[in-house]
Amino acid sequence: MHRNQNSLKMIILTGLFAAIIYMGIFILRIPLPAIVGRPFIHFGNTLAALAVLFLGLRNGVLAGAIGLGGFDILNGYALTSWLTILEVIIVGFVINTVFKVLKYNDTKKNIILIGITAGTTKILTSYCTSIIEALMVGTSFKTAIVASFLSLPATVINSISTAICVPLLYFTFRPFILATIRTPR
After folding, report:
1. Which of 40, 76, 86, 155 is the S-S candidate for 126 at Cβ 3.0 to 4.6 Å?
2. Sign of the C-alpha dihedral, residues 63, 65, 68, 70?
3. pTM (2 d.p.)
């Protein structure tokens, strides 16, 4: 599906996905109270997972890093944007690895499994990120672990929405993306 990563079509799609990811956070976000950080519910993670599935690892992670990291830089989270980009890379690698193990077979069962995997991975990476953020502001390690755990509800909600929305959106947009990516022979 994503053979020529440097083609003009793929570069345009990567930029388009980055913009959609940014807008998916900027427009559709619901702030939540938390002990560590300023979490909110959004669809950026879902869209970044779809970018990896449709565009491949390199272009998908690039779109996710630009969209999610760019949002952080432009909206008051610049100090921790590097952690967001690191999370995108890790989640992208996990999604790509699972997809590869499944031989890129995009059956409903496999895409549901990938959605659940993406959501679960995001919970783990967000927990670690929250610990790092707490340590960055001078919190002791034990307190950072507890506070980060208590700040997970927003991530869990985002992860559940990712697990549900990835399969729904994947199968909705697959025909359009495939038609766009295909090159005439």
Report:
1. 155
2. negative
3. 0.89
